[in-house]
Amino acid sequence: MKIAFPVSVILNSVYFRLLLAGLLGAMIGIERGRDGQAAGMRTHILVALGASLATLAGIYTVEVLGADSDPLRLSAQVISGIGFLGVGTILIRDRYHVTGLTTAAGLWATASVGIAVGLGAYPIALAAALLIWLVNTVVALPQKRSERRSRNVRIYVELNDVNRVNDFIDRTRGQLREDRIMILPARSGVAGNVGLEAELIPGSQIDRESFRASLLREDYISYVL
Length: 225
Description:
Elements: H1 7-11, H2 14-34, H3 41-63, H4 73-91, H5 101-118, H6 122-137, H7 141-149, E1 153-159, H8 165-171, E2 182-185, E3 194-200, H9 208-216, E4 221-224
Antiparallel strand pairs: 1-3, 1-4, 2-3
Helix pairs in contact: 2-3, 2-5, 2-6, 3-4, 3-5, 4-5, 5-6
């Protein structure tokens, strides 16, 4: 004897909603992970799952437990609470330049997708997840191409000895444009460090990571970004 499950039962299942939220979070987060961002696929899956679960819990307290409460109160807290997670992706990745804004916005949007799934608004959730993925991949392509074609390389270096600034400049002679070097006191890191922001203009293309690694081998250089 075959037992048939109506499609409506499956779509309204709590487990289906959690699974769909996780899958949509994975779709959004996989690009962030490939791009080397702090919040990758696992983070986005957990954000979408958590937002969906909070939404379902709010509905459960009202419809099942009969609580006299707003069923969307918990999901509203998710929207504001996700900001703390997003701030972490912005602050810990850089000292002077603001980075991670796209990842932070993506986490916030992923939480919204999870809420939509928890409410059963599948078309909205699917459309939003697809649009977020397109923004992170297709829309970002022109910017990434421009960055790859640019031969200029901007770096931030912290020196642990203020008297070695000239050594750094001499070491990279032929790659620096003098009028684009700024000497600034370090805003963070070991006390006494001096921050040097420079724009390298090499005679030919250089590998940024290899150049960064070569700088870190110098005993007077503490940090390179």
